Amino acid sequence: MNGREIHLASRPLGWPSESDFVLAEVAVPEPGPGELLIRNEVMSVDPYMRGRMNEIPSYVTPFEIGRPLEGGAVGKVVESGSAEFAAGDVVLHQAGWREYALVADDAATTVDVTLGPASAYLGVLGMPGLTAYAGILEVASMVPGEVVLVSAAAGAVGSAAGQIARLRGAARVVGSAGSAMKLEYLRSIGFDAAFDYRDGALRRSLRRAAPDGIDVYFDNVGGQQLEVAIGALRPHGRVAMCGAISMYNAEEPPAAPRNLALCMGKRLTLRGFLAGDFAHLRETFVAEASAWLRAGELHYRETVVDGLAAAPGAFLDMMRGGNVGKMLVRL
Amino acid sequence: MNGREIHLASRPLGWPSESDFVLAEVAVPEPGPGELLIRNEVMSVDPYMRGRMNEIPSYVTPFEIGRPLEGGAVGKVVESGSAEFAAGDVVLHQAGWREYALVADDAATTVDVTLGPASAYLGVLGMPGLTAYAGILEVASMVPGEVVLVSAAAGAVGSAAGQIARLRGAARVVGSAGSAMKLEYLRSIGFDAAFDYRDGALRRSLRRAAPDGIDVYFDNVGGQQLEVAIGALRPHGRVAMCGAISMYNAEEPPAAPRNLALCMGKRLTLRGFLAGDFAHLRETFVAEASAWLRAGELHYRETVVDGLAAAPGAFLDMMRGGNVGKMLVRL
């Protein structure tokens, strides 16, 4: 039996293109002892994957040329060499970008589909949701009554971050995004204000959305929005630095905030983080988030494309902001 | 009786000049009930005063044109309208830049000259020392075994910061400064390595001084040194943002770190602070620092100029890096 997978064909310089990816057909292996063969049903494309396409070692190892890409995926066990799992189990693992995945049993976790659909474990109940939860509550230490700004707010992480802030008592939640449709979406899920970062009047837009300033900035984009947020932060304000999507494809050194000297007088804290450091919160987070889902208080959206061959395009479209909510590929 | 004081004559744009200051002679007032008349003996010039010369409201109110400047000073009570103080008491207060100061009794504190000379309360035992102590231990949360970088390390704050790091168990302390004489001074007070930030090879100099990277950066300067430090910080590294002297006189937006995206992967924290927020540590700090002074383990130097008329020149010289250790004016 054969299965298809997406390999990295070449390392992109600046913006990736379809030609940096190649679809390969390979023989599906037999699971050995302690291994699972999984038929992937849905896979995730996430901004952090862009970093792994570079050769520069980072907090995650670079993808290898001519080898399959990796990333979160949910699938069904078709053959199990492990006593821990049986055929038919629905599991979350990191061997995405392929139809059949061979995975060690300790690298897979069963997902509880009574709490939410399997795909939610790649989004609102998964890594993006935990990122939002840890960023708002642990990294930024948001307390009730504060004003929160989220950039890339219509994405999987941003939409969860804004809603978690609201559900945990923020006085006002403001989001930025890149289209009228996204702004409408943000208002529909409870953001108090939303503005388009592309309209060229960032400072004024933020002032209108948060006239008294902000206490917390959940940063997914870096660059100019970070500078404007630093200007708007009130004393003892905090930035949860989650991502810098405005910089990932930059070939020139990107714009940098020229107003960092405000950090002293305003006693600001800027703190970068990775969701992986908050794995100890996963259980608490899933319990709290699934209760919000059941109560209809936490909303999420998915942008789904079909077929493995569409995965590179889905990744590129997500980097350009083409998705609302979680970008997924259904296999 | 008349006394002299320095008034702000005009608000500097960019670098201040002597003409922004004027020496005025005024009648010395009588202290009313609860007031002290103090003959100032030594006064401080500090980088933060530059910010108060601008009209922009900040964490401290701007100086007023035609009114005396303010700042730390130590003097002797010549006449007391308060039961708390007697003539002859040596007190620390904030009405510097003048020969005679009229001060409310709750704005003055007696200094214990058995712990250190009176002038030390403007430096190593005073606000600069507390700034260093709070920055290293509270803001950066340095733990024994870490590698620490301090910029403007030959100044009052920087020289204390590096030594406090060493005395509290840093594995390696590196300082940057702007002259061979300053680098020599840093080595003489126990810095493990020192480099000249003006030599045009910042990145290489830091790599040589700290080949395995740094854990803590005590930032007094901002700008390009901050960028280089972010590049050298190891995972979970911290920046105590104390000052940005490279920016205070800039008329153009200053250089900004273009590598902030490293904060995510390395989980860096950048935190701005003001010594005023750590007043609760003052007693602990003075006890610990004066014990180090007595034991000969903590060193400090003063650059002293004579006469109130020389104060503007001393301030300008300090902004240009002309001092080693604390810049003081003896009246």
From TrEMBL, chains A, B:
KW Oxidoreductase (keyword) present: yes
UniProt domain Enoyl reductase (ER): residue ranges: 17-329
Entry keyword Ion transport: no
GO molecular function: oxidoreductase activity, acting on the CH-CH group of donors, NAD or NADP as acceptor
Keywords (A to Z) from UniProt: Oxidoreductase
Pfam families: ADH_N_2, ADH_zinc_N
Protein name: Enoyl reductase (ER) domain-containing protein
Native species: Mumia flava
